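Reopening this ticket.

The earlier resolution said the output was attached, but the attachment link was broken on my side. Pasting everything inline this time so it's all in one place.
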Amino acid sequence: MTKYLLLYIIIIINQTALLSQTIWPGDINNNGIVNEVDVLYWGWAYGSRGPARSRTSDKWEAQTINQLWNQQFPDGINYAYADCDGNGKVDKRDLDKAIEDNFGLRHGDLLPDGFKNGSGRDALKLVLETDEQIVAAGSKVKIRLKLDDLAAQTHIFYGIALKLSYTADLIKEDEELDFGLVRSSWVYGTDSKAESLIASSQLKGVDGLAITRTNQIGTSIGTGEIGSFTIVMEDIILYRQDTFRLSIDSVLFFDDQFNSIPVIPDTIQIIVKKDLEEIISSETNVEEKKEIIVFPNPTSEVIYISSEYPIKEMWLFNSFGEKILLSFSRIDEKGGVFQINMPILPFGLYYFSVLTNDGYIFHKKIIIQNDN
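Inline output:
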């Protein structure tokens, strides 16, 4: 009798524990927030089926798990969390409705998402690039997203999540930061099984982007463009020129074993001019000027620049968009060689800018690395 009573108590405890588990639709990794990382989990489980919930809904509220699925993610989270709407399958609706509609919403205490920015010359590097460094107000601009050529190593790609920040005030009203995959991108592999999502985090100027495979098969990292951001610049700006900045602040890269691989993020800046004629004049002036040379790059302590033109200011932007004003001194009285003693900064990628006395602005990406 005691034996059966004990068994009955164990069953009751297990059932109670199960009923105490709840799903917040879209928060697949169950860390307290719906964001770009949940898209990676969704892509990992895409196409799976399991027990449906008694209530089918993607509404943002706690929903009870009636029965756990047989599958779980490598980190132990049950696939029931990926069935965001409770219909018994992980499908496109879970992405388009639960994750996108609930993006940025929170519940309870937040747990880390596992973002893993890289550093050093051997790490994978993301690259943001554009053909238009100076544009007119109201222009449509494309910014390409790439992994640099050195990334085509032994890593296998399954998904990547990016936390983005940008100058929201310079995007035209009723427009938003947009992203599209290139149809020839290597992320599609040979089977075209990939999806992307860019969504607002509920904070102005902060978005999340995720790109994931959807058939449980990774693909080799290739070269070339992954996709591109599209921005329509504000057509009314207060000053003669302003600067639009797009920064990848945090990266989470999953390979085909659910391992996270460190990746170096990137930042890009675009000058927005009020007057189109001023842009033509600026571009002509740039062509007439000789290039300002920055060396060494990468660097660890000191930067030198060579320029025939008087320098007014120099500064750095870090990955968070923070401006760091630099002090410099001329070391060649007859020439134009300047030395910058770098402040102590975290290793990584920075955006180096020079302003000459005649208003020419020069930009260069530099890498600050460990000198060991």
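Reporter confirms the inline version is readable. The two ends are 70 Å apart (CA to CA). Residues 3-19, 280-289 have pLDDT under 50 and may be disordered.
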